[in-house]
Amino acid sequence: MGVSPRLVEEIPDPQPPEVTQYNRHRYQCDSCGTETVATHPDCPDEGQFGVNVIAQSALSRYDHRLPYRKIADRFEQLHGLELSGASAWHATERAARAGRCEYEQIRQEIQDADVVHIDETGIKRDGEQAWIWTFRTAQHTLYAVRESRGSDVPAEVLGEDFAGTVVCDGWTAYPAFSSNLQRCWAHILREAEDAAEKQAEGEPIYHALRQVYVALQVRLESDLTVRERANLQRVARRELESLIERSVPDGPVATLLGKIEGGLDHWLTFVGEPAVSPTNNAAENALREPVVLRKIIGTLRNDRGMFVHETVLSLLATWRQQGRNPYEELRRVVSSNEMISRAHAVPAVETPE
């Protein structure tokens, strides 16, 4: 009758945890009293959990969005490994400390970038208002949790000598930090549409503003010279200035025109700089995951919670941008951190059995 093949994919049954006892010899110098403890490449310097437990704890919290109590339940259900919610937290904190060096490397890459998208949203720290900032380039994403929403934060993260272009919304912290900005067209078009719905005078202004933007997009699809871009920029600026000069009664439309005028030097940066995007969608998209987590966790408890939150989120977001496996990368940074710690330790003395 023939053969009817059918492929069935299955995963192995959950494996129980492996428990290994490391007998570490201890020595004390008779002269100075310095104590030396032998090391082993597979034995962590602190805690009782290995690399896989640490990596899975961090990933369960920040990728699967599980509470620490549920993370502990998952380990027990799948592997028979008993640990508390507090232990899952400490394991995640260890992952963050191990990955902090890579976090600083991401910061350095962003500081050296030509274009950085920045945005911020609120978050609670011990019930008090704080802010989580995102700094995003094509290959890197950095989160920073701060109690400030002012220009001191981008100055701290990017450095006061940052020479690149900042793509942002209209928040006052950005022009206070840098004069090289690209204001977000997605924001101003939404505000223009909203003003048009509330006030009749806004309808022609919204359509004119949208027409300017669409015409620029179409024109920039061509391979323009520097001179052509500069000329296009001048023409578009005159069109924006003509909008600002319109006489309208007080209300949403007057407020809109005030915003257009306030950002007049920053709406058209993308016309002269091909690498600059006219919208800040990249940064807004980067804030979606922290916003979802905010709804789940409610508040960060303290500085340690802020440290873990910004570090692990930054690592996972950057690795995804670069097409890397977050679990394998977490294992790598935790393992590397253990090796670095041992490299700075006093060498162990080997003795025969």
Automatic annotation (TrEMBL):
UniProt-listed Pfam families: DDE_Tnp_IS66 (PF03050)
Region feature Disordered, mapped onto this chain: 1-20
TM region positions: none
Organism domain of life: Archaea
InterPro entries xrefs: Transposase-related (IPR052344), Transposase_IS66_central (IPR004291)
Coiled coil: none
PANTHER family registered for this protein in UniProt: BLL1576 PROTEIN
UniProt-recorded name of the protein: Transposase (IS66)
